[in-house]
Amino acid sequence: MLKGVLHVHSTYSDGERSLAQLRDLFLSEGCRFVVMSDHADSLDARRVREYVDECRRRSDAEFVFVPGLEFSCERRMHVLGYGVTALCASTDPQEVIRHIERERGIAVIAHPQDSAFAWIESFETLPAGVQSEVRAFFTSVEKWLAGVLSEGRAADELRFPGEPEDAARVLFSSLEGAMMAARAFGDEKRLTSAGKFLVGSLSK
After folding, report:
1. 3-state helix, strand, coil in the chain (%, to 5)
2. How far is CA 95 from the centre of its chain?
3. Do the Cβ atoms of 109 and 74 come closer than 8 Å?
4. Are strands 4-8 and 69-72 parallel, antiparallel or unpaired?
5. Is-contact 121 165, C-beta < 8 A?
6. What is residue 127's predicted lDDT score, i.e. its pLDDT?
7. What is the pLDDT of residue 200?
8. Which residues lie below 8 Å from residue 77, measured CB to CB, with a gap of 6+?
9. 128 pLDDT band (50/70/90 cuts)?
10. Other CB atoms closer than 10 Å to residue 36's CB: what's the count?
């Protein structure tokens, strides 16, 4: 198994250890690679070149540094760009994600605050890996819910118009919307009341 570490800072930004010290530390722990993410706002173009060059010089067959950047965005959101070393002028997180994808890197929203989840879910742009995982999750939930609805109708316990698959999409979308509103307003009752209403509308 290849062992490594993601999201590491060095003395190029606010870290406490130099790249040389990080190499020794992680090698002693059996790691073979580290994906760096020093803060982009601590670096200018010259320092980025020095950073990338030192990552390259301190990499070999035994241990590899993958240089990357952490971008500070609006509302104190931080977006990691694994494998990205091109600076970005924008602080809009969606534009930063687009920038990272254009640079063929991997975008990760780092340590998001609880209050940011509703905002994140409204993004038109999400990291490609996140998009596929979200779609897979939605599909699996809708398939399960359609099965429950179909069984309930067959047992004469539930009533709804149309096909179970269509009803499942409507129910799931309604609950997702209620959950986003509950997070945005900090009001759990928005979700629980929506759930009770939906369940009640299905019951015979």
Report:
1. 55, 15, 30
2. 15
3. no
4. unpaired
5. no
6. 67
7. 87
8. 93, 109, 112, 113, 116
9. low
10. 28
- Domain's final residue, options 82, 113, 144: 113
Smallest CA-to-CA distance from 128 within 107, 110, 109 is with 107
The pair of structure tokens assigned to 146 is 């359609």
- 91 and 179 in a single domain? The answer is no
Q: Which of 63, 87, 113 delimits the end of a domain?
A: 113
Q: Which tokens in the block code for residue 91?
A: 């602080």
Reported as type and span, the H/E element at residue 108 is strand 106-110
When the pLDDT of each residue in the chain is averaged and rounded to a whole number, the result is 90
Q: Is the pTM of this model over 0.85?
A: no
- State in Å, rounded, how far the first CA of the chain is from the last one: 54
- How many C-beta atoms lie closer than 10 Å to residue 120's C-beta? 15
30 or 1, greater pLDDT: 30
Residues 31 and 108 in one domain: yes
